[in-house]
Amino acid sequence: MSGEDAPTQQQNADEQKQQVEKKPAESPKTENKPDPPPASASTEAAATAAPTEKAPEEDSFSYRALVLTGYGGYDKVKLQVKKGKPALKNGEVMVRVKVCGLNFADLMARQGLYDRLPSPPATPGMECSGIIEAVAEDVTNRKVGDKVLVLNPSGLWKEVAAVAATHTFLMPERMSFEEAAAIPVNYITAYLMLFDFGNLRPNQSVLIHMAAGGVGTAATQLCKTVNDVTVFGTASASKHDTIREGGVTHPIDYRTRDYVEEVRKISPKGLDIVLDPLGGSDTHKGYNLLKPMGKLISYGAANMLSGQKKNLFAVAKTWYQQFSVHTLSLIQGNRSVCGFHLGYLDAETELIDQAMEAVLELYRQGKIKPRIDSTYHLEQVGEAMRKMQERNNIGKIILTTEPMKEEAKKDEAKKEEKDKKKEDKKKEEKKKDETKKEEKKEEKKKDEIKKEEKKEEKKEEKKDEKKADEKKEETKKEEN
Amino acid sequence: MSGEDAPTQQQNADEQKQQVEKKPAESPKTENKPDPPPASASTEAAATAAPTEKAPEEDSFSYRALVLTGYGGYDKVKLQVKKGKPALKNGEVMVRVKVCGLNFADLMARQGLYDRLPSPPATPGMECSGIIEAVAEDVTNRKVGDKVLVLNPSGLWKEVAAVAATHTFLMPERMSFEEAAAIPVNYITAYLMLFDFGNLRPNQSVLIHMAAGGVGTAATQLCKTVNDVTVFGTASASKHDTIREGGVTHPIDYRTRDYVEEVRKISPKGLDIVLDPLGGSDTHKGYNLLKPMGKLISYGAANMLSGQKKNLFAVAKTWYQQFSVHTLSLIQGNRSVCGFHLGYLDAETELIDQAMEAVLELYRQGKIKPRIDSTYHLEQVGEAMRKMQERNNIGKIILTTEPMKEEAKKDEAKKEEKDKKKEDKKKEEKKKDETKKEEKKEEKKKDEIKKEEKKEEKKEEKKDEKKADEKKEETKKEEN
């Protein structure tokens, strides 16, 4: 793994960097870049052109790349221009990137919570789609012009990427670059969780958290490829119609309902599979929702992500509440607990190949189709990350390497200003809300005090009644 | 579950008990028992004969049953004669038991280490084969004369058992009663572990501990129903030829070799599935042997069983070393840890039905065949348990309800005496060994002291050398 991370680090160290300011006048974005070859130019002759030879234009070769410059907020990912063509090592191909996918691991990485990304400065990005522009001499199964999906430990949020040929997969016909960039991480993750660890079969039930997210929508679609699978999906209420259309049988608004109760109402015996990207206390809840022979699959700690910057309290709480289990408990419950992270699987070429082949076959059969939430330009990566972190997406958020038009940039600047104002307003409102809440609390307290007083009064009344009764008894006795 | 255990308890409380002494003269074993109906007498008319009606011979109905009279050694399981026909509740059938299976859970139960058996006095036994002798009025899918395999929480080590019809399964044609009694626990356990939790597929590798045991031989056969599965099996060297014939690719003598090393030699990347019946430190070893996407399935704590009676030290050690795992560790390793125990699954009728149907179909296809190690009479249950606990079996140990012949009993008595002598001799030898070991330890200590002394001497020598060097230096300096 570390060996494969090396090129990224090396690039960061060796290449000249030049930060692209947001002001359009200073953006040298199309400077000196050779045109990407047309997709049809995939001849054998082109494939054998020695890519490592120093071409005359190499010195003037440049490309744009997003770079994480340090751990922190959205602004820590900057757009830079790199000079010099990436050198290809044995087994590598050069990909002209079209579209990149955004993942939770990228957000974690930005906060320094993901150890698979090399230390900053480094380019994030685990998946993309694009066209092969050059291949190393020993690569025989890829050729210039091949349209590919790419899955890599990191380093793909840029216009040109050198990656191992084994990390590329041929795109099926009629698949768009947008769809291709949305497939690798989410669908392979969902596929291996559901069909390897989960062993999903007809008539089973699955709980999918963040059902409107990238993995969530992929998992829902994959569940529907098996007969009569019941899907419980958590998402905020506004997304319920969409995820229901996508295949979720029972959408649950986790913000207003206790999802454990909601599941138990419909499925009193519990669930066959729980996909858990949250960690912390939600893992405990998921475990307790398992039927006999049920499988809990933990694949993240999204609960650690609270806000733009690392929130030590959220991290500590998630760690502290991290689920641990004894085999004796597993035995008595006939349960399984699994952990999954695609980032730690990149040496498993054969496993990934098989899963990808199965996923692409389902695509060809029309049984799955990536749902794109929104497309951003590289320049807008901050906005894209914010949307994902605030869970405002339904489906996949992607980045296109196509440069923004000048007008759009101006709009963008305006929008950013607007967004800032909005956020300030939100903060103010939040403060107001909190003040209101405090007031309500006070009122509640007062009410409670009143109630207590009433109770006391009632008690007194009862005592009086009792006394009266006793007196009556005594009178009766006396009468007897 | 507790509801289903109730009949056994009730029988124990309600019925007259009479302990059968081992002396033949006092054994009233065939007294007043009606002949079991022939297997061919399965007419619809017989099936509708009201079995709960008080027949004239009911009062004289008696049958033999093994009863755990208290927690402890092999002698705590006694053969008793019960009087009165067991009453059938709704949904139940009465089975004339032919052959019973012995399981590790029965040994644990005898020591008070298994909570699925009602408190003593109670009849152990989770599986048997036999012929249906009566059915409750509401039972429509079983009839008198049906040959069945039975899987029950407990209570089957007797000649006549009332069980839920859902706990019975029709025997395939040409299956013997011996084979039928060897199937339910071992094969359903192995099947669900390998194909539900384990999700076993071609080209994978599996570690089977106690590969010569009941679950071990069943699991080996089931592994061989999948293409190119590599089976590592631990067993003592004398059993290697047999288990190799049975399908184990790499037998490992766990008594003389470190099985972790042996596995790593052949499969450096590790294993896809580890079946772990041992618990304690072996669970840790199994976990560390897992490949990415590997599954550890813990299904017992045989390490707790050390000797005939409960060994508090072994129990405490196994508990203390009991494996527990954090989801973060699972995530980073892409691993799964599962717990399995058939005893906690008896409410899962559909699941068990499906697994049993699959197992019986494999039997019909000739792909699996229970391996019977040895058959004992009910009278010999102590001997049978000893053989299992000392792990001297290759395959299944079963009990037949056929009464022993008088001559055999005399031989048995002689054998028992011989065994006792053997055991006494063993104990003596063990003592001798321990004395020798102590002596060796003393010698080792002496050696170590000598070594220490030598080291000290060397140090002194070195010091002297250093001093000499320093002197030389000084001389040199002076010369300069």
Automatic annotation (TrEMBL), chains A, B:
InterPro entries, per database record: ADH-like_N, ER, GroES-like_sf, NAD(P)-bd_dom_sf, Quin_OxRdtase/zeta-crystal_CS, SV-ATPase_mito-regulator
A GO CC term attached to the entry: mitochondrial outer membrane
Domain of life: Eukaryota
CDD domains associated with the record: MDR3 (cd08275)
Domain Enoyl reductase (ER) stretches: 72-399
Residue stretches of biased makeup (Low complexity): 40-53
Protein name as annotated: Enoyl reductase (ER) domain-containing protein
Lineage of the species this protein comes from: Eukaryota, Metazoa, Chordata, Craniata, Vertebrata
